[in-house]
Amino acid sequence: MDIELSGGVMPLPQETVEKLIQQSQEAKNQAYCPYSKFRVGAALLTKDDSVITGCNVENACYNLGVCAERNAMAKAVSEGHRSFKAIAIASDMNDKFITPCGGCRQFMREFGLHWDVYMSKPDGSHQKMTVAELLPVSFGPEELSCHSY
Q1: Taking the mean position of all CA atoms in its chain, how far away is CA 146?
Q2: Nearest 5°: CA angle at 14, between 13 and 15?
Q3: Which one of 15, 26, 69, 110 is the catalytic residue?
Q4: Torsion, Cα of 107, 141, 13, 123 (10° steps)
Q5: Given pLDDT bands bounded at 50, 70 and 90, which one contains residue 1?
Q6: How many CB atoms lie within 10 A of CB 63?
Q7: Over the stretch 2-16, which tens digit does the pLDDT of each residue have?
Q8: Sign (positive or negative) of CA dihedral 133, 127, 98, 52
Q9: Which end of the chain, N or C, is more open, meaning fewer C-beta atoms within 10 Å of its C-beta?
Q10: What angle do CA 43, 46, 50 make, to 5 degrees?
Q11: How far is the CA of 87 from the CAs of 32, 41, 74, 99, 104, in angstroms?
Q12: Does the annotation count 143 as an active-site position?
């Protein structure tokens, strides 16, 4: 089940989407979440078609935990990537699609508004939205270049 909500972004081939979702589900298996038991995996597709995965990593000091999406993006940046086509997110929730938290939405926004976010369920069904749709009226790098003092 693919719910198409975004517009203006070159759609990925269905095979690519399915593989990206599968890779996010596999990344979920590496999650370190002894406190919440809420496993999340992410698979990030770069402009050069590399796939970088990440998982959530919790910490006893709760606010120091890192979400799967931010983990994958930071890993990608550390490997020299700055432009992304899409990210797929997976969890164990069967009743609804996993969505990125507000912090992850803002982190995604740093790298552009017009790339796709595939929110999935364990059965592989997914919902697609752009970063712009997930974080409307957002603040980004462009605003920092427009300051006047």
Answers
A1: 28
A2: 90
A3: 69
A4: 20
A5: very low
A6: 5
A7: 333 334 457 899 999
A8: negative
A9: C
A10: 75
A11: 20, 10, 13, 11, 11
A12: no
Q: Which two three-digit tokens encode residue 42?
A: 């992410």
The structure tokens listed for 138 are 């957002």
| Beta bridge pairs of residue 26 | none
What tokens were used for 24? 């996010």
pTM summary value:
0.90
Model confidence over 53-112: pLDDT tens digits?
999 999 999 999 999 999 999 999 999 999 999 999 999 999 999 999 999 999 999 999
Q: How far apart are CA 85 and CA 62, in angstroms?
A: 31
Q: Which amino acid is at 24?
A: S
Task: Provide the 10 A C-beta neighbour count for residue 8.
Answer: 8
Q: What does each C-alpha distance from 132 to 26, 28, 52, 66, 139 come to in angstroms?
A: 27, 25, 22, 22, 11
Phi, psi values for residue 102, rounded to 5°:
-60, -40
The strand order across the sheet containing 116-120 reads 2-4, 126-130, 116-120, 84-91, 40-46, 51-55
Distance CA 89, CA 38 (A): 13
